Amino acid sequence: MKVHVGAAATPEEAEAIAKSLAEHLGVDVDVHVGDAETPAASAEPSEPSYPLDDDLGPTDRERDLRAEIADIREGGPEKYRDRLSEQGKLFVRDRLNLWFGGEDGTRGTGDAGDGDPAGVKFEDGKFAAFDDWHPDAPAGEDGEENERGGDRLPGDGLLTGAAEFEGRDVHFMANDFTVKAGSMASKGVEKFLRMQQRALKTGNPVLYLMDSSGGRIDQQTGFFANREGIGKYYYNHSMLSGAVPQICVLYGPCIAGAAYTPVFADFTVMVEGMSAMAIASPRMVEMVTGEEIDLDDLGGPRVHAEESGSADLVARDEEHARELVAELIGYLPDRAGEKPPKRETKPPKFSPEGIDELIPESPNRPYDAHDLIDRIADAESVFELKEGYGPEIVTAFCRIDGRPVGVVANQPTERSGAIFPDAAEKAAEFIWTCDAYEIPLLYLCDTPGFMAGSQVEKDAILEKGKKMIYATSSATVPKQTVVVRKAYGAGIYAMGGPAYDPESVIGLPSGEIGIMGPEAAINAVYARKLAAIDDPKERAAEEERLREEYREGIDVHRMASEVVIDEIIPPSDLRAELAARFDFYEDVQKDLPDKKHGTIL
Q1: SS3 state at 101
Q2: How far apart are CA 330 and CA 23, in angstroms?
Q3: Cβ–Cβ < 8 Å for 397, 339
Q4: Which residues does the UniProt record annotate as the domain CoA carboxyltransferase C-terminal (predicted)?
């Protein structure tokens, strides 16, 4: 405590005042004479602020409260808790212990109450809906007892609070499936909204541990369409989007309104044999459309990992889901505007000296883009997202010299690396997310361009390709582009080509940039000329001559000579070159036009 006394006070008087106040108040005291910044005297209390022989302690009132908290922590009806093991899932509080427990995985005694995981800082709303179910709840305002005897509703089926996860402060919510199948009602909705709104204030990441059957239909009054009802979830998701990382893990069937939280999150993890999400249940689908389908085929992990693209990752079980999120969050900052965390550099899994031999000379021969990334990235740092969706493009986080980087790589083993609608959409979302969280981008270009044909037109290749080009155009993080081999057509545009404000475009000696590949070009330009040659050998020789002539015009050396690209790099030097360029351009500033926002989503 700082105390000011009159300027006429003597040092002895200041010391006496300091000692007296320190003893009386039980706190440290600094006494300043007049306006002096330095204290003239300081004192500490010689005794605690309470008597050492104090024999006061908790009364029955506190003991009763602790008993109520212990009862709440037991969750919903015992019969529903007993069924969890049959479903292969943890009780929600055991799940929190898995996520936020101590190093040995055991419970600690946290601030949130006895038995809480060591990493839980506090919980909000344990007593939500308490008066609606607890037998010891007080009588209602009209003097009559509240309704008793129905299902237990501890916390109204939702847990919210703050915790430490992998050294990071996070907000969390977790459905309690033992309370009416994790369904949402008014008190739980209020808790969810408060958690989101507090995340907007703190700027800390949010973990959604979802296991909800949707809105509680028989109790929808007061939370469905209200201004502060369940619809506000998705407004808040939208406000949080790009402001703080939102990560959602699904532990059960999330239907209707509950299914929107995972798709609004930046990253969604589903668990095999357990997770599902759909706009309506199979029973409702049959009622509306007549289609008979089970939940796994309607919205299970395979559907959303391979067909809809709504799942970023699929976990084997609950433990694996936590492991995946622990690795994922290591690439992300706490909030927008901060740099993602760096780590110590590691040599790559395979030597960069093998890159040149890995890349076939023929543009039509495949190689695996993962093998190329493993020769560029730090060992054990490659973390792929949406692996089964749009496989013609690989989207992955990695580290190069310890720095997180988002990689967008064409995959020649999948339809020659041509860009299909799903791949374009996947890449656009990944680029957009990297840009939101200050993660630099690396494009590894080896594509014949966007796919053509009637089916891809029906699948919106133009619309989805537009989104990829828009995301690349709008990204203001440092961008490096490598022309690995073929860069044909509009593929070079989507893959961060020279016109898209990259910090560098560098080529490997195998690189080619052109409107189209040699085979297509010769067919388009010289088909009649070649058809007029009767001798097959002469025609083949002329075709080969034209092909080589065309390739000379699109060769990376020609592009470097005309300063289309910045440099040609020996493949063995690629990792070191990229590390140096990402380091140099780490703090590059790029501005977008002054406008509210673009119109391309």
Answers
A1: coil
A2: 49
A3: no
A4: 354-594
CA distances from 365 to 413, 423, 488, 513, 568 (A): 9, 20, 15, 17, 22
Q: What is the pTM of this model?
A: 0.86
Q: Residue 220's pLDDT band (boundaries 50, 70, 90)?
A: low
Helix segments in 501-587, DSSP class H: 518-531, 536-554, 556-561, 574-584
- Separation between Cα atoms, residue 124 and residue 195, nearest integer Å: 9
Q: Is 400 within 8 Å of 390 (Cβ atoms)?
A: no
pLDDT digits (tens, 9 = 90+) for 94-131: 999 999 996 544 544 444 445 678 899 999 999 998 88
When the candidates are 3.30.70.260, 3.90.226.10, 1.10.1410.10, 3.60.150.10, the CATH number that belongs to 81-329 is 3.90.226.10
pLDDT at 74: 93
Exposure string of 204-242, with b = 16+ CB inside 10 Å and e = fewer, is bbbbbbbbbbbbbeebeeebbeeeebbebbeebbeebbb
Strands 441-447 and 403-410: parallel
352-511+555-584 belongs to which homologous superfamily? 2-enoyl-CoA Hydratase; Chain A, domain 1 (3.90.226.10)
